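Quick entry between incubations.
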Amino acid sequence: MNKTNAEIARMLRMISYLLDMSETKSKKTNFKNRAYNTAAEKIDNLSISMEDLYKSEGIKGLLSIPSIGKAIASKIEEFINTNEIQYYNQLRSELPLDIEFLELKGIGPKTLKSIYDKVVIKNIEDLEKAAIEGKIRDIPGFSQKKEESILKKIKNYKDCRNRFPIGEIYPFVKQIERYLSEIKGVKKAITVGSFLRMKDTIRDIDYLVASNDPQKVIETFVNMSEVKQVLGKGSSKAFVKLNNGMNSDLLVVPDESYGAALLYFTGNKQHGINLRKIASSKNLKLNEWGLYDKSKGIKIAGETEEEIYAKLGLEWIPPEMRENKGEIELSKTETYKIYNSGENKISQLIGYEDLKGDLQVHTNNTDGKMSIEQMVLYAADFGLEYIAITDHTKSLKIARGLDEAQLLNQANKISQLNDNIKTDNFFTDLIKGEVRNNNYKNLKNFRILSSAEVNILKDGSLDISNNILDKLDIVGAAIHSSFSLPIETQTKRLVDTALNPSVDIIFHPTGRIINKRDGYPVNIPKLVEVAKDTKTILEVDAAYERLDLKDDHIKIAIDNGVKIAIDSDAHHPLQYVFLKFGIGQARRGWATKKDVINALPVQEMLNNLKQG
DNA sequence: GCCGTTTTCGGCCCGACTGTTTTCAGTCG
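Done. Structure below.
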């Protein structure tokens, strides 16, 4: 049981695929398979769980999702209740092909059907074997060249690691972006796609370049040393596989099409489709080259995104919000004007320069790499005004967690440092050889907060008592063990923590590590409800392998009036840069500056805590 | 199969690249 949205979407997508394979030229079937595919995409982008929706509201809940009608809703219901869809079984009894073909890019249902009709295959292994044995080249419509290309595509499928955490590839992606921007004649070069939308993980890296010499840019791109294989190229586009296994696409357009191309290539796909539908309804046509007036046959916009959105009756939408989750409705100029008298999300979204403090920072007193003083120095250098020192507590043995005496000792030291920081020469010794810019002038007003990342035990209690915690400026708590308890127990551990009057923030609430572990199960709406009642802050841990809370959870939290903190979880000064990824997730969750507690100056932030 | 400010029928986003199709189907994003 417990069907994820991804599993449901995959089933619908495979139904679409099988319908496409078995389609008799009739147009009706053609649109039927598209309907299944559209429903699958919709579900993939949904912020709520279909199963939860079904359990709380029944089939009516499913029908409330656009693109899901009676027929598809009843199949989802069947899948949730019986773990099967008879319609799918029936299709598969006619075409017994493994669902993995969905992930084999470049070979679609039509190609596969032509092969299937002549050679018995069931899965990708069979297909590879048939190609190696030369059984495909003689099928009508195929050739030796096509057979070779099938083998290449299978190799690509096997090589491809699914998705990379955004922070892991960030420097590499930016390096190529800089390289492209330095090609002679290039006016602009930018990384677009899910990277620009700040998705937590990235599959493909897409670049957009504005230049009047596309051939030169394309040749330079496909000949970079980072390129392992050229998958295709034409007069405006190129597709390559990079050495790290990722696919990368390049689109080159003239300056006057830059905005249209940026809009098209940033996505997401459904956002783009909806914009093109709006264009169509206004007798306009939108593509990657511009916005055109159909009746007059002339281009009316294209150089900037803003002018295109404006001509469609919309305010500009930040890339992080372009996920087809209601942002188009929100940006309609009429809606916008009403809201904008006070509270429009789009104009108030938390910005990349808005954080004033960082509420989770570690030092070499436990598992961090540097001292409090060094972490402070670099934080000031980074432009922050305060940090909380949140070393682990005693029951987390692996990090040499602090006991009560050590914790109080550290708090005393921090208190002294706060006094000394105001004197002119205090950091002189430390600064020697470490100064990178002149932000140290901010140091005098810098505030160090005593804190801890208190360990939540299996029964939901903490490993440090409240009378000790109350001596700290701010308290964070987190789960680091017993991940496999059932959802009710895990939720109760976090709810009990939120109910604890000494705990201000719950750190990385779901415990996920991207590509390594899913995290423990948590009833997020329930936790959010208690957090709201108790004024507990939920963290967005910005370390790129965590990004926890994730975007959809952030949206649930702030929609319910819960404040978030965006923290780096830095164990080294260079890790303050992680804050960028946390802010990206917060923007994806539509968080405004007001929703983020550490966008406040230190005293206001403290005043807004539970006991503040 | 889904949808509706042209609402229960008749539409359904748009264009680049590939292969071998001399005018297009398949696939992708």
